[in-house]
């Protein structure tokens, strides 16, 4: 159980550039701010000699918790906070905050450092060159313009649909249009299929997605972060939302893991791996599709992580929705679990990530103690347990967690006990 991109590297400047135009337009201020709040989870990637560049502070109590589980001194989890700059990339925020000199000094004292970005965009590559750093996993001379373009295009719904047609990957019936053509395309699609999904061409996490039918005539309008085109697709009868995460590069393309996504109103809320139950029948086809896309990305010069998201209909048909050519919501939690499991002397495990609200607010330390009292805390001896991979939420209630057990049944049991301990809503 491994994340090749993270494990096969030297020292890193872990660059948590959640604020990137790769997934959504930089004008989507509130959306990008919410995503940036997840940056503290990147501490789980740190090793001695690494430094984290983060858009939000990493609470000392959470860093201490992570350090204990990773078996590292607290001072090894070094972080530099880069205050976000509205409408700008994180690289521009580094410059605007006057932090280039600080980062250069850190680089000078850490020979062999490379930049490990969350999203491989043009601004991160330019920053790496400014700092004199290679981009992981490219080395010198770094990613080409062709590789950057491939990452950008395949982070759009339309770019993925075009690639899918070339690669023989099944996608729902649909079309692409600009804002002016949206009403006409939506009307034709509704007449043909009854209900459709309208998606911004460049978006992630369900941002801007709406379900549309004759009974709901209102259509989305362009807004901050939604300045591009639109994709309108037939709404298929979804039974399961699934995803495969892969890694591609000079050694070829490999599946890292696959699993089932937890989705509410089109937005990601959790993940379970490996695939089990009825959704497991789609695994071979899903992973084959991922390998085909990985071959295309490799030919374009891209190296690193990517994923393919898909749905399984009630009749068992698999349809692909999109590709995410970047680190996703599951890559860091998976790397964390893989690291903890490996250090516990195991190679494989069943795992999940979830997000739920507790019945009342808790301080982070309270929940850590509660997990220990209930026998739910991560146990390196057994290689199982619950990990609070995001620290304490601002409201004290919206908890993100990972659970690993030796089997699907054991993982489900641990999550059920966690839900009971914190009286999760719903």
Topology:
Elements: H1 4-7, E1 12-15, H2 29-36, E2 51-54, H3 60-70, E3 78-81, H4 90-96, H5 100-108, E4 114-117, H6 122-131, H7 145-153, H8 157-167, E5 174-177, H9 182-193, E6 195-200, E7 210-213, E8 230-234, E9 238-249, E10 252-264, E11 267-273, H10 283-299, E12 304-313, E13 318-324, H11 331-343, E14 350-357, H12 364-373, E15 385-387, E16 398-405, H13 408-422
Parallel strand pairs: 1-2, 1-4, 2-3
Antiparallel strand pairs: 5-8, 6-7, 6-8, 9-10, 9-12, 10-11, 11-14, 12-13, 14-16, 15-16
What key attributes describe this structure?
8-stranded antiparallel beta sheet, 13 helices, 4-stranded parallel beta sheet, alpha+beta, 426 residues, 24% strand
Q: In one word, what is the shape? A: globular
Total E-strand runs: 16
Mean pLDDT: 93
Order of SSEs: HEHEHEHHEHHHEHEEEEEEHEEHEHEEH
**Largest sheet composition:** 8 strands, antiparallel
Work out the oligomeric state of the chains in this entry.
Answer: single chain
Radius of gyration, in Å, reads 21 Å
Molecular structure report:
It is a single chain. With 426 residues, the chain is an alpha+beta fold. The chain is 32% helix and 24% strand. It has 13 helices and 16 strands. Helix 2 (29-36) links the parallel strand 1 (12-15) and strand 2.
